[in-house]
Automatic annotation (TrEMBL):
Family in the record: Belongs to the tRNA pseudouridine synthase TruA family.
Recorded GO MF terms: tRNA pseudouridine(38-40) synthase activity
Chain's gene name: truA
Keywords per UniProt: Isomerase, tRNA processing
Residue stretches spanning the membrane: none
Residue numbers binding substrate: Y110
Domain Pseudouridine synthase I TruA alpha/beta: 7-97, 144-245
Database matches in PANTHER family: PSEUDOURIDYLATE SYNTHASE (PTHR11142), TRNA PSEUDOURIDINE SYNTHASE-LIKE 1 (PTHR11142:SF0)
Reaction(s) the record says it catalyses: uridine(38/39/40) in tRNA = pseudouridine(38/39/40) in tRNA
Coiled coil: none
EC category name: isomerase
Organism: Clostridium boliviensis
Name listed for the protein in its UniProt record: tRNA pseudouridine synthase A
Length: 346
């Protein structure tokens, strides 16, 4: 048995998204069926990003397991001969059996395209959102700047989204225009349900002059979907690529108006330990931050996480369960800290 990783590109126009569902054909369904036919065994793929109906991709990632002896790097060529013209596997390779595309740290890049002119261009109608009203790109850039960094993006998530944790990190956001085509390019460590499309709709309101650029910060602070702009059409959105981390970052720093912390991961490989220093955190966000960042360290390989709350002593309660983790006192040369370990059921 071997695990094969694929880079998958597709035009999402004729599909009801990535994930198999009852209301129409999906990318996952076509890949499963075609791989099963090619390899003469039941195949089920697992995708990294479950894109919505009508969304396009230039580089989604998927894996599947097979006992077929066909070399992994040859599967893409054989598969493409059987796939419809709007789906292509750009690359295939064998990966370790434990590799999972949704459980690896990665940077996702999305682009949203807006055709901004008086009359729509027919050849772009399936790959961009048409906006008749003139958009001020400089104002859109100014509005976008408030979203860069680590924030709670609850205002930019469709209410029926299933994510319990709505904090995400946006590494960069560019807004630029070429001819009549405006592109919003966003890089982040993950995105909530409809997040990019709601951001695009909000920035369009800024570009029209409905919102001043600084109002984007107020929308972010509200943590309320009703405060943000409308969700734009799926056809303008493309998943560009996913860049996977080869090893955990040595140091991660998260900071905004509500919190500031540093996660040190340089001892994970050698000692299985990580250090979390919480410099400051608003009281209502403290427990969520603690659970979220400790979980990140554990997912990166830490067995023990030493936590220091610099702002207020006694905020972490010894022996209390925080999500999957329980904390106990631990003495170091720098004073008392708390060590978190995964809670094991008896």
């Amino acid at each position: 048995m071997k695990r094969v990783k694929m880079i998958v590109a597709y035009d999402g126009t004729n599909y009801c998204g990535w994930q198999i569902q009852n209301n129409g054909i999906t990318i996952e369904e076509v890949l499963n069926r075609t791989l099963t036919d090619l390899l003469k065994e039941p195949v089920t793929v697992t995708g990294a990003s479950r894109t919505d109906s009508g969304v396009h991709s230039e580089g989604n990632v998927a894996v599947f397991d097979t006992e077929n002896r066909m070399p992994a790097d040859k599967i893409c060529f054989a598969l493409n001969q059987r796939l419809p013209d709007d789906i292509r596997v750009l690359h295939s390779e064998e990966v370790p059996s434990g590799y999972h595309p949704r459980k690896q740290n990665c940077v996702k890049t999305y682009e949203y395209k807006i055709m901004n002119r008086k009359i729509e261009v027919p050849t772009m109608r399936l790959y961009s959102y048409f906006c008749y009203f003139p958009l001020d790109v400089e104002k859109m850039k100014a509005g976008a700047s408030y979203l860069v960094g680590e924030h709670d993006f609850k205002s930019f998530c469709t209410a029926r989204g299933q994510a319990e944790e709505t904090v995400r990190t946006i590494y960069s956001m560019e807004v630029f225009k070429s001819g009549d085509l405006i592109t919003i390019r966003i890089k982040g460590n993950g995105f909530l349900y409809n997040m990019v499309r709601i951001i695009a709709g909000t920035l369009m309101k800024v570009g029209m002059g409905v919102y001043p650029p600084e109002h984007v910060e107020e929308i972010l602070d509200a943590r309320d979907r009703n405060a943000a702009g409308p969700k734009t059409a799926a056809k303008g959105l493309t998943l560009v690529n996913l860049e996977y981390e080869k090893e955990p970052e040595k140091e991660i720093h998260g900071e905004n108006k509500e919190w500031s912390y540093t996660l040190y991961q340089d001892r994970i490989v050698s000692h299985g330990e990580a250090d979390l220093v919480i410099h400051r955190c608003r009281e209502e966000d403290f427990e969520r931050l603690l659970i979220r960042v400790v979980h990140q360290a554990v997912r990166n390989g830490a067995h023990t996480v030493l936590v220091k709350d610099e702002e207020r002593k006694g905020r972490i309660i010894s022996g209390r369960a925080y999500g999957f983790y329980t904390f106990y006192p631990y003495e170091t040369g720098n004073g008392w800290m708390l060590t978190g370990s995964q809670r094991v059921k008896p």
